[in-house]
Every structure is written in structure tokens, then in C-alpha cells.
């Protein structure tokens, strides 16, 4: 369609120069991009919340995980949970159940840190339990790191614990959101 001075587009927008046509086209494109990005963000937020709830439901119905958590609690209540981190204990059922419980919590923490899991839903469901379990398991983790020489073991879980108790702040808004996309 050619634009003639004084002619209007569909009788609505009077466009008198090519510059005006470019400006209007650019504005429409920018609005379309913004609306698309908002739609993607809203859809992603809803998907993340749904995935978080599905993950919690799955964990709460996983018999092996529930058995591991029961064994973890038994070992923690008995005291000296760090003994199960010793090299000669790694193949024991108690050590395996403690590690299974901690591995599950570590995966959840990674999900929270990467944005795969919704922090507010996670916090409402797991906060007190995670704090209590980390405090029970901390000596085990410290000993396991020492025995294996792997200082990074359960770092995401420890970071999440520190955030939940207020010792450390969550990353700033921009960094959190950029890490979710890139």
C-alpha cells in the first residue's frame, strides 16, 4: 500500500509522511514484543508453580524416599550422625539412606536456585523441615566433605538453609531472573 500525503490507513490513522509510517510500525512492533514477553513470563510462572506442586506431591508419595527419610530421622535421633560419613560406613544402609535424603533435598535446592521450582511455594511447604534436617545432617555433611575431599557436596542445600534462616540473602532480582533464562 502506498501512502499519499493526507491519506489515512483504513480511515483511522492519518499518515502524512513515510517517517510517521515507520514510527507507527515500530511502536506496534515494540508493543507486540512486550505483550509476547509478558505472556511468556506469565505462562512460565504458572508452569513453575504447577511443577513445584507436582514435585512435592511426587516426593510425598515416594515410598523409597519416605523410607529414607524415616531412616535419616532414626539415625539423627540416635546421635552422632557423622559416623555414617566415614569411609567404612559408605556402603551401610544408614549411610545410603542419609545420602538419599540429602540428595533429594539438594535436588530441590538446585531447583529453587535455578528457578525450576517456585521459591515461595517451596518455602511454605519445606522451610521448617529443611532447616531441621540440615541442622541434624550438618555434621554428617562436614565429615563427608572431609572424607571424600569434595567441598562442594550439598552446597546448594547449605545455601538454601542459610537463606531460609536469614543468614544469607537471596540473589538480587535481576540475577535470579537472568539465571532462569540463561
Q: What does this protein structure show overall?
A:
This protein has 182 residues and is mainly α. The protein folds into 2 domains: 1-48; 62-181, no CATH class. 71% of the residues lie in helices and 2% in strands. Strands 1-2 form a two-stranded antiparallel ribbon. Helix 2 crosses helix 3 (93-114). The longest helix has 43 residues, at 18-60. It is elongated and about 85 Å long. The relative contact order is 0.09.
Outline:
With 182 residues, this protein is an all-alpha fold.
Provide the descriptors you would attach to this structure in a database record.
about 180 residues, mainly alpha, 2 domains, two-stranded antiparallel sheet, 6 helices, 2 strands, about 70% helix, about 0% strand, transmembrane helix, DUF4760
Order of helices and strands: EEHHHHHH
- Calculate the terminal CA-CA distance, rounded to whole Å: 41 Å
Could you tell me the number of beta strands?
A: 2
Number of helices: 6
Task: Please indicate the percent range of residues in DSSP E strands (runs of 2 or more).
Answer: under 5%
Rg is: 26 Å
- Stretches where pLDDT is under 50 for at least 5 consecutive residues are none
Helical amount: over 70%
Q: What is the number of domains?
A: 2
Overall mean pLDDT = 87
Shape: elongated
Oligomer: single chain
Structural class: mainly alpha
Sheet having the most strands? 2 strands, antiparallel
Strand adjacency order, main sheet: 1-2
Keywords: Membrane, Transmembrane, Transmembrane helix
Transmembrane segments: 21-42
Pfam families: DUF4760
InterPro entries: DUF4760 (IPR031876)
Amino acid at each position: 500500500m502506498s501512502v499519499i500525503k493526507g491519506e489515512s490507513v483504513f480511515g483511522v490513522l492519518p499518515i502524512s509522511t513515510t517517517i510517521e509510517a515507520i514510527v507507527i510500525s515500530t511502536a506496534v512492533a515494540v508493543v507486540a514484543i512486550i505483550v509476547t514477553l509478558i505472556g511468556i513470563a506469565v505462562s512460565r510462572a504458572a508452569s513453575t508453580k504447577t511443577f513445584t506442586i507436582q514435585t512435592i506431591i511426587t516426593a510425598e508419595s515416594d515410598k523409597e524416599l519416605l523410607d529414607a527419610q524415616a531412616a535419616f530421622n532414626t539415625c539423627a535421633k540416635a546421635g552422632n550422625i557423622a559416623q555414617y560419613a566415614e569411609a567404612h560406613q559408605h556402603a551401610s544402609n544408614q549411610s545410603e539412606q542419609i545420602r538419599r535424603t540429602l540428595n533429594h533435598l539438594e535436588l530441590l535446592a538446585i531447583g529453587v536456585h535455578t528457578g525450576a521450582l517456585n521459591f515461595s511455594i517451596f518455602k511454605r511447604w519445606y522451610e521448617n523441615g529443611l532447616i531441621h534436617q540440615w541442622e541434624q545432617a550438618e555434621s554428617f555433611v562436614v565429615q563427608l566433605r572431609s572424607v571424600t575431599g569434595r567441598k562442594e557436596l550439598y552446597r546448594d542445600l547449605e545455601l538454601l538453609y542459610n537463606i531460609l534462616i536469614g543468614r544469607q540473602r537471596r540473589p538480587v532480582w535481576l540475577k535470579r531472573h537472568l539465571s532462569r533464562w540463561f
